[in-house]
């Protein structure tokens, strides 16, 4: 009898445990009905400006430099999965109404567009790519003399398709990811027809002198040749956060035997 009672208690415990696990799984499931209601173009109640367009499981913003983001709705929370995972508490949601709390705890009030031209407006504004700092390869050629020898130092600025995502916030406190394009710098030094050094320079080469968190959000904005001395040929790179004055300057020296050294500018 005791054995039966113990077995029954174990069985009830397993059932309760399984129910708990299922509840935990259900707790994390998406609200597909809420997701379906969110499909369409949403406008700010006060300004009537387009805030975003929802299509499938993706949010598209009206400005080309704003990256689209994946989203989910779980219970009463709106999640966006961009450069960072953001959570917004939903205040009200209906077929043509969506209110949620921003990161600054303001209530953002939106209504769904019923104007077909809004679709053309948002996609038309997204048709152009973000213009990088340099739109084409830029070449700089410097001729220098040192101890009776003539040298040529080159810088080639090459715009790339390497995307850098910078997170910013709207006045309402909503997270927006802005997309910029990094540059690849090619530097080379010649003595006559003999190449002393030639190599592509990317921002990742500065990981020993610039913190990873800064590099992640920065672009290699510029490269300049600053002359020659007994230590070699001196270049300086600008690694900066897009649309800000925050930057790091990095000194590069190419020695006469073709070796590169990198130090942060003091």
Automatic annotation (TrEMBL):
Pfam families xrefs? DUF4738
Where does the secretion signal sit in this chain?
1-23
InterPro entries recorded: DUF4738 (IPR031762)
The UniProt entry's coiled-coil ranges are: none
Keywords in UniProt for this one?
Signal
Q: Does the keyword rRNA-binding apply?
A: no
- Signal listed as a keyword: yes
PROSITE patterns tied to this protein: PROKAR_LIPOPROTEIN
Q: What is this protein called?
A: DUF4738 domain-containing protein
- Give the originating organism: Bacteroides sedimenti
